[in-house]
Amino acid sequence: MQSRRRFLFTGTAAVAALAAVSRWPRLSAAPADAGQPAGGFEFTRTNAQWRQMLTPEQYMVLRGEGTERPYSSLLNVEHRAGVFSCAGCRLDLFSSRTKFDSHTGWPSFWAPLDHAVATREDGSFGMVRTEVHCRRCGGHLGHVFDDGPKPTGLRYCMNGVAMNFTPAAS
C-alpha cells in the first residue's frame, strides 16, 4: 500500500510539474523591455495599454517573451510578395524576399530589414540563444540561429503572432 501511495503521489507531482513548466513562459517570463536601450524605446505603452491593443496571444509573445505553438500561424505559409511588420508598433521588420521554409513551424527569414530588429542573449530554458526583438517597441519576436541558408547562414525564427503581413501593391 505504501509503495502504491508513493507511486500515485510521485506521478501526480510529476504531472503538476510538467503542467507548470509547459506554461512557464506565459506565467513568469520577464517583460520585453527588460533589455531596452539606455534611452528607452521610441514606441512605448503601459502594460494596460499593451493589453488593450494586443490580443492575449500577441501580448504573451510580444510583451511576455512567450512562444506560439509551431504551425499555428498563417504567416508560416504566407508566400506572397510583401512586408512583415511588428504587431506592436507596425515597424517593417522583414521582406518576403528573405523568407524561407525552415520546416520548424514558425515563419523564418535569412535577414531582417536594415535597422528593424535588435538582439540580446537569452539564457532561458537552460540554453543560450539569441533573442530577436523589435528595435522600436522592444516586442519579443523570436530567436536567431546560425543554421539558415545562404547568403547569411542565419535563421530568424519568428513568432507569426508577433507580426502582421502587408502584401506588395500590384
Task: Describe this structure in a few short sentences.
The chain is α+β, with helices and mostly antiparallel strands and 170 residues long. Helices cover 24% and strands 24% of the residues.
How do the strands and helices of this protein lay out in sequence?
Blueprint: H1 2-22, H2 24-28, H3 47-53, H4 56-62, E1 82-86, E2 92-95, E3 99-100, E4 108-109, E5 117-122, E6 129-134, E7 140-145, E8 155-158, E9 163-167
Structural description of this entry:
It is built from four helices and nine strands; from the N terminus they run H-H-H-H-E-E-E-E-E-E-E-E-E. The chain has 170 residues and is of the alpha+beta class. The chain folds into two domains: 1-30; 31-167, Metal Binding Protein, Guanine Nucleotide Exchange Factor, Chain A. The protein has a six-stranded antiparallel β-sheet, with no helix packed on it. Strands 2-1-9 form a three-stranded antiparallel β-sheet, with no helix packed on it. Residues 4-35 have low confidence and may be disordered.
Query: What is the H/E string?
Result: HHHHEEEEEEEEE
- CATH homologous superfamily of the largest domain? Peptide methionine sulfoxide reductase
At CATH level 3, the topology of the largest domain is Metal Binding Protein, Guanine Nucleotide Exchange Factor, Chain A
Share of residues in helices: 10-25%
> Please, how many domains?
2
Percent of residues in beta strands?
Answer: 15-25%
Structural class: alpha+beta
Largest sheet: 6 strands, antiparallel
Q: Helix tally?
A: 4
Estimated radius of gyration: 18 Å
Number of strands: 9
For the residues shown, what is the average pLDDT? Answer: 83
Low-pLDDT windows of residues: 4-35
Distance between the termini: 73 Å
Q: Give me the side-by-side strand order of the main sheet.
A: 3-4-8-7-6-5
CATH class of the largest domain: Mainly Beta
